[in-house]
Write a structure and sequence with these properties.
The chain is mainly α. It has a single domain, classed as Alpha Horseshoe (Serine Threonine Protein Phosphatase 5, Tetratricopeptide repeat). It has 6 helices and no strands. The protein is globular.
């Protein structure tokens, strides 16, 4: 049985009311990552960024995929995240992802 936190339960309750809320979906993924459930976190983040270009999701997904030794997939996610960050004018996130991508390649 997977470990669950009270925060996960709170976020899931909020998501029941608004399942498309990007911030809540991101928060749930990060809560899983914080307790070492990185496969679950990656799955949640990949689903999030498939639905919407939520820039922080790309960065975290890339980092988690790298830690899971899914480097090619992580690089692809970061490349897509860089494009999304450029489109949204988020130069800070663009720079972070560019630097992390360069370190991974």
């Amino acid at each position: 049985m997977s470990q669950r936190t009270p925060r996960m339960e709170q976020i899931e309750a909020l998501l029941a009311d608004d399942p498309k809320d990007s911030f809540l979906r991101y928060g749930l993924a990060m809560e899983h990552a914080s307790i070492g459930q990185e496969e679950t976190a990656a799955t949640l983040l990949l689903a999030l960024i498939a639905d919407t270009p939520y820039v922080p999701g790309f960065l975290q997904a890339g980092q988690i995929l790298n830690r899971l030794n899914r480097v090619d997939e992580g690089c692809d996610v970061l490349r897509r995240g860089i494009v999304a960050a450029k489109q949204q004018g988020d130069s800070h996130a663009e720079g972070e992802m560019t630097g992390f991508l360069a370190a991974m390649e």
